[in-house]
Amino acid sequence: MIFAANLKCNHTRESFREYAEILNSNLDQNENVLVFPPFSAYEKTDYKFKLGAQNFYPCESGAFTGEIGKAMLDELGIRTVLIGHSERREILNESEEFLKVKFEFAAKNGWDIIYCVGENLATNEANKTKEFLKNQLNNIDLSYENLCIAYEPIWAIGTGKSASGEQIEEILNFIANLTKAPLLYGGSVNAKNIGQIAKISSCNGVLVGTASWDAYNFLNLIKEAK
Ligand code: PGA
């Protein structure tokens, strides 16, 4: 199972150092753990977990104020990226067109991509989830070999209200008909509900926000999944 921690805009360089030490000394070597810290906390250090980028701008380098390009990721040895997270879609206004450009740039570089999709509450309540997700997924090459899809219903992100096991299974099975990529679920995953989520056969892992921000909480969640 893949355990990905999205630290979002949390952790300073100093607090992340401590976080990383705790994870590193408590994880098994063969665990598939991926951490997305804020850019300012990156260090070129060998951990038992992999580091990924929450964001990047689709350029090598250049006049893109406030952005991070490939040259900076290369320097840190980062080859795993998140694309399409709902917070970037909604708060930072990243459009389908822009996400396509980011996807193609990352794919051209052979990076591992976690591409996030998910519907809002209104779409979910109107029973239009599958149609909506199919449109989001039509934006990218679903046969790209280093792709992983994260299904994250927006109404479940940061709300403490995860989708039910049945809902997750139904949607992941639907996505599995469209792509052979590994599938993650994200949205209020925690140590209490991970046991049930881990049992879903089409679920290859989880993308965790809130419950990953404390290293011991995240370790506990990983332990509970077994
Ligand atoms: P959450 O966030 O676990 O706090 O719901 C998940 C995410 O945004 O990836």
Radius of gyration: 17 Å
Q: Please state roughly what percent of the residues sit in beta strands, choosing from under 5%, 5-15%, 15-25%, 25-35%, 35-45% or over 45%.
A: 15-25%
Give the terminus-to-terminus CA distance: 9 Å
CATH architecture classification name: Alpha-Beta Barrel
Identify low-pLDDT runs. Answer: none
Shape: globular
* N-to-C SSE string, H for helix and E for strand: EHEEHEHHEHHEHEHEH
**Major sheet: size, sense and barrel closure?**
8 strands, parallel
- Share of helix among residues? 25-40%
CATH class: Alpha Beta
CATH third-level topology: TIM Barrel
- Overall structural domain count: 1
Helix count, per DSSP? 9
Strand tally, please? 8
Q: Can you characterise this structure?
A:
This protein is α/β, with parallel strands linked by helices. It has a single domain, classed as TIM Barrel (Alpha-Beta Barrel). The chain has helices at residues 13-26, 70-76, 86-90, 96-108, 121-125, 129-137, 165-176, 194-198, 215-224, and strands at 2-6, 32-36, 50-51, 80-83, 112-117, 147-151, 183-186, 205-208. Helix 7 (165-176) links the parallel strand 6 (147-151) and strand 7. The termini are close together. The mean pLDDT is 96. 2-phosphoglycolic acid binds at residues 6, 152, 157-158, 186-189, 207-211.
